[in-house]
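ok so I'm stuck.
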Amino acid sequence: MLALPVAPGGEGGATAADAVSGLLVMYCVIRLVRERRRPLTRTAAVILAMPVAGLAVAALGAASPGAGLTGFGRYLQIFVLVPAAVVLLLRDRRDFRLLVWAFVALALWQGAIGVHQYATGTGASYMGEEIRAVGTFGAADVMGMATVVAFGLVCAVGTALGTGPARQRAVAAACALTLLAPLALSFSRGAWIATAVTVAAQLALAGMRRALRVGLAVVAVAVVLVGGVGVGTAMLQERITSITQVTDAPDRSVTDRYTMWAAAVGMWREHPAAGVGLKGFPEHRDGHASLALSSGSDTEGAGAAFRRQPLLSPHNMYLLVLSEQGLIGLLALAGSWLALLVCALRGLVRVRRRDPAGAAPGGGPGSGHGLDCALVSCGLLIWQLVDFAYGDIGGPSTVLTAVCFGLVAWWALMDPASAAPSAVAAGPGGAAVRPGVTVGPFGGAAAR
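replied:
not stuck anymore, here's the structure
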């Protein structure tokens, strides 16, 4: 559904992708009721449900019951319900890899549209020219395509660094290189920083020798393209240079962001425990922001007319949660993310200890101990946690964030025994089962 164009003027409301995510959750609930069993381990249930406590407290403190219920439902969708449904419905690493390649395909589609927008001058307005690549998300959600392309690039890099078939790794590497162009043309500094940090982390986690080799190759190619051939427009080079000027000579967007960050901190100081309530940042913004804050940002292009976009969030997920949910909400939500990161890294260490080569004999799509799955999972979570320092949830692409958290949670919280197909027998349909157990519809094992 995210491959379809967003209806003009429909930003801010539910989209087709949100509707499908709701159907996904409903289908999962029906399956659970029919099976009448507990599908998650206690640890998985606690980690996935941690944000609920802070959300409930913040919903009670909202300015109106409608705002509280709307915010509560949105946060539950993104950080609890959809991730849990993905965890329950993924059966094995083949399902995981299928979803990973779906991320890459969506990124290539959106990236192709973005490059066409830049080449033909039909993108969103940037510096007076309609050249900003935004894909099908339109000028109202300039971060949408950048997020999708970055997710696809991270998935491609993780797959390329894995130990699957050589042809598959070569295709993944080619996809990653292809996605660099639309990511650059998105002019999103936050996405650039998050992607650079994530790819560096993936290289380091895959092995320091490989990281050094790839790093030297990237530096050499960059020197040739930028220094020798002169690849990169003046606007792109200026945008890259502006990253180092966010403190000395910040532009208008950076100044607005700093001002909103200060406003969010001011809200938290007045309500340190539970914040100002869900959906409360816009109402309290003007009372805590300085005169440096502009009235909004200008959006135009990509098929949309000129519009003044109001600034309704601090563009920092941690400060948004801190201001609206207080310390209770931030500790609950960030604690869940930190637990997922620790469990995902433990799974990566377990994979590398089991087989330093990372693959079982055969090299088929279901073989190996999942090094590619580990690198993709850790990469997606690292990207999201870094990007949350420059952005927050909002827009049609947010539902993809929920699926990412589901992928990460599946790898981090699944049964360790299921991560080693060589230690189990193959059941019906290629499912891996241990002797004396049968496999349920959600990939869980039930004793006969």
